[in-house]
Amino acid sequence: MIKVAIMGYGTVGSGVYEVFRTNKTSIDKKVGQELRVQYVLDLREFPGDPVMDVLKHDFEDILNDDEVKIVAEVMGGLHPAYEFTRRCLEAGKSVCTSNKELVAEHGAELIQIAKDHQVNYLFEASVGGGIPIIRPLNSSLTADVIVEISGILNGTTNYMLTKMSREGLNYDDVLKEAQAKGYAELHPEADVEGWDACRKIAILTSLASGNQVDFKDIYTEGITKVTAEDFAYAKKAGCAIKLLAVSKKQGDTYCVMVAPAFVRKENPLYMVNDVFNAVCVEGNMLGASMFYGSGAGKLPTASAVAGDMVDAARHLGKIITTFWNPQKLELAPVGEMTHRFFVRMKSDAKDAKVFGDVEMIDAKIKGEIGFMTPVMSEDAFARKAKNLDIISMIRVAG
Ligand code: HSE
């Protein structure tokens, strides 16, 4: 029998507890012995909930029980999650987490600490919720050089953009509705400003490159400026608008960006709607491959955390190699990234010619024009756009 603990009984933590209760027989069979949830850590009380039988309020109770070999850290946030994780690893306990903030900030360091203590730090649930993407990058695609990762990595914004597209609503109305339904948080900045997707693409790029990508280096735009008019143009052009996180190999490094983008029907990300996430990975041998599924939510995320706990149980005393060193990766300047640009201007069509051979899009909106430029770099676009009266610009996915 292997004892495990869950730190945090919020949405994901209660999900992990539920996964163990519902699938106990199957999980124990797959591990080859019983995996018993010995403790759940939370400061609160949960009267009437079966968790009361195992609830603890003091972290030291978990830390000091040498029989606890695996801990799920599903508290979220940096502190005290960082300190608790470190101390568990140093005490010889493997840690499995959904905490993308912690993984993005301290992933390489915590993997190294785990290695030094013959245990594992696993974080499948930190990107794409229940979608397996960390393990494929870390073990299945190791014979490939990853040349591009592009993904819809945030469920909240994908839900909002899908709603705007289907119902012709404005950003503010969709946000209010999403908040009322509990899809968007009261303080939605991490999602709508793109910071959540930014941390996730930083984690994926770290795994693709093997070095530490600082999420603060990544150019990030959210969806707050996307309007119903932008959607009218997108539809006319046969495109969806998605918040894309893109990482492209450039020489020895990667060029990374998070921003809304026009996505054409031919692109597999076009049909990824509502709260679903998807990640397209292009390997130099594999070619293109897409991972799709529930990118957020209690049980999908808990499923990934519990799956890591099973893996940790199968590897007690053995290190699962993760290719992610603490050495920082200097990203390529984002100005070198190339794509087409969709532009709206308060002008007439002849002014659009500054961008070259543009493709006009008539969405029948008075007092403005909309068009797509040829492929050019971010820097070239910025130079040409400098003195023009541009209403909005959205990149076009390749
Ligand atoms: N807020 C995140 C999302 C949760 O909407 O995708 C999952 O990481």
TrEMBL record:
<comment type="pathway">
    <text>Amino-acid biosynthesis; L-methionine biosynthesis via de novo pathway; L-homoserine from L-aspartate: step 3/3.</text>
</comment>
<keyword id="KW-0486">Methionine biosynthesis</keyword>
<keyword id="KW-0028">Amino-acid biosynthesis</keyword>
<dbReference type="Pfam" id="PF00742">
    <property type="entry name" value="Homoserine_dh"/>
</dbReference>
<dbReference type="InterPro" id="IPR005106">
    <property type="entry name" value="Asp/hSer_DH_NAD-bd"/>
</dbReference>
<dbReference type="GO" id="GO:0004412">
    <property type="term" value="F:homoserine dehydrogenase activity"/>
</dbReference>
<protein>
    <recommendedName>
        <fullName>Homoserine dehydrogenase</fullName>
        <ecNumber>1.1.1.3</ecNumber>
    </recommendedName>
</protein>
<dbReference type="Pfam" id="PF03447">
    <property type="entry name" value="NAD_binding_3"/>
</dbReference>
<feature type="domain" description="Homoserine dehydrogenase catalytic">
    <location>
        <begin position="132"/>
        <end position="310"/>
    </location>
</feature>
<keyword id="KW-0791">Threonine biosynthesis</keyword>
<comment type="similarity">
    <text>Belongs to the homoserine dehydrogenase family.</text>
</comment>
<dbReference type="InterPro" id="IPR016204">
    <property type="entry name" value="HDH"/>
</dbReference>
<dbReference type="InterPro" id="IPR001342">
    <property type="entry name" value="HDH_cat"/>
</dbReference>
<feature type="domain" description="Aspartate/homoserine dehydrogenase NAD-binding">
    <location>
        <begin position="8"/>
        <end position="124"/>
    </location>
</feature>
<dbReference type="InterPro" id="IPR036291">
    <property type="entry name" value="NAD(P)-bd_dom_sf"/>
</dbReference>
<comment type="pathway">
    <text>Amino-acid biosynthesis; L-threonine biosynthesis; L-threonine from L-aspartate: step 3/5.</text>
</comment>
<keyword id="KW-0560">Oxidoreductase</keyword>
